[in-house]
Amino acid sequence: MASNFKASTRRQATIQAKPTRRRSIGRPAADAESIGREGLIETTCQLLRELPPNLITRAEVARRANVDPSLIRYYFNDRSSLLEAATERITAAFSRSLAKAATSRGTTADARVRARINAIFDLIGEYPFFQRLFVEELSDSPSHAGDKLLRKLVLEAIGDLRQVVNEGVRAGELKATNLPFLFASMLGLAEFAATGGTVLNMATQGKLDQATAARRYRNYVGDLLIGGLRAG
Fold this sequence. Notes:
Elements: H1 2-17, H2 30-33, H3 36-50, H4 58-65, H5 69-75, H6 79-103, H7 109-126, H8 130-138, H9 145-170, H10 179-195, H11 197-203, H12 210-229
């Protein structure tokens, strides 16, 4: 009887010592699926509106999305692939913005050029660290996805400018120009609007609130570039 008691005690100890089985790697739990891949990309895009890309980690995305970091590992191989997916969404939005500008042409070449300037200012205003995302985070990606996305965006924007400027030249409204330099100027001037608020405030001696200064700066850039493009 003592022997049976000892055997029973050993069986109970074995049951108590048996570790809790962890969920195997696979599809996320049902409550996590409500976030999903698209939700993680959108969360990353939101963070890219607020933070330099080097501060956006999988842990930070998980914290903002209120999910376990393992969910990110399920949908994305690594941090780079998550940033690539977010960048693809951002560049697609810019492409749509360019397409909208093309379909809502103004009656003059000036208006068409200004629409493109506004599209670039809107992009950089929403994502002030846009270039840093490519240069610091995606340029060394093994998949070269960042380079492909940036090339697509740049070539698409320059091609769109080429059509607008060529139409203006044929109509006698604009003069021919260096289109890659024109696009680079638009991008650089838009970046200053997004990141140079302190300098702009000093330059205006603090007489303008931030929103007014940004609006006037954008209009000034448009006048400056369009003035340089006008024929005659």
